[in-house]
Every structure is written in C-alpha cells, then in structure tokens.
Amino acid sequence: MAPLQAILEKHRTHPPNILATLQAVQLEHGYVDPSNVPLIAQALGVTDSDVHGVLGFYHDLRTEPPGRHQIRFCLGDSCIAMKAEKSARRPPEESQVRARRDDQGREVHP
Question: Which of 7, 16, 55, 84 has the fewest Cβ atoms surrounding its Cβ within 10 A?
C-alpha cells in the first residue's frame, strides 16, 4: 500500500483535481479517512471544505473501510423500467444481509 504522501505527490496538478486525488487515495487504501482531509487539502492547495465538498458529493467515495461484500443496485431510469427496485426492496432477512448505516447515519438495506 502506497503511503498517502506518495499518492498526493503523484496527483498534484494545476488546477488541482480533487476528485482524481480522492479516487486514487480510495483505490489504494479502500476509503478516504476523514482525518486525512487536511493533509490532502494542503497538498492540493485547496481548503478542507473543498475536499469535504467533493467527498460528500460523490456517493462512490467512502469515508470508512468497506465491508467484505458490497451490494450495489442501479436505480437509474432504465434499471427501474426493468423492475430493479424489487431486488433493492427485498427484506434483509430474506437476503441474509444485515442492514448498516451509511456516512450520513441513515440505515441502508440491501
């Protein structure tokens, strides 16, 4: 696993690309630790708020380690037209997967 500083050095650009940097950190470490936001912001020459804004906006960026298994559902128009939401609404006891809380503290069911 590459140290954070090495990733930040590699992703310094002008203008800074916060999203690409956060994606690289997550790719290497599995998630973006919120305690590293000040280091990332300083390395890119942006504010902590800028980094938190990008981190909070993109749902694919995680702020805690991922679970062993990840279940994702497409809820775009074409997927809904194909009744994908039926799978997403399946009761957790049927799927044998426990609910968890997301980054905003909301309960998430598979």
Answer: 84
